[in-house]
């Protein structure tokens, strides 16, 4: 799906900054930081606009936050099942220790965790570190 269709499907107005930022996610095979996105935007784009757009995209189920081992925030494009306020991102996130990229492994799901009585699961995330297929070849 193209960026303008995703933005409209989420019930958002189509702006140039939203389209540019979403195009960056669509073309990126790896998760991105706020800083990565700023560096890929044309000169003169406001940091606050990028930050607000990322937060809006997370809230609307367009992108999701990716857990990292150093507590930085990365973002990745959601699968089509995600929607406003409800993410289906229960897949494993893989961090390459060689090239430092973080990839969503959609085909590898986070295992079901059975918690003791009285505990309530809100969100589960799994991060695996290793060498990616690009660096391994």
Task: Give structural notes.
This protein is an alpha+beta fold and 137 residues long. It contains 5 helices and 6 strands. It has helices at 3-9, 16-27, 34-40, 47-59, 133-136, and strands at residues 32-33, 63-66, 74-77, 91-96, 102-109, 126-130. The strands form 2 sheets. The protein has a 3-stranded antiparallel beta sheet. Strands 5-4-6 form a 3-stranded mixed beta sheet, with no helix packed on it. Strand 4 and strand 5 form a beta hairpin. The protein is globular. It starts with a helix and ends with a helix. The mean pLDDT is 86.
Short summary of the structure?
It is built from 5 helices and 6 strands; from the N terminus they run H-H-E-H-H-E-E-E-E-E-H.
List the helices and strands and how they pair.
Blueprint: H1 3-9, H2 16-27, E1 32-33, H3 34-40, H4 47-59, E2 63-66, E3 74-77, E4 91-96, E5 102-109, E6 126-130, H5 133-136
Parallel strand pairs: 4-6
Antiparallel strand pairs: 1-3, 2-3, 4-5
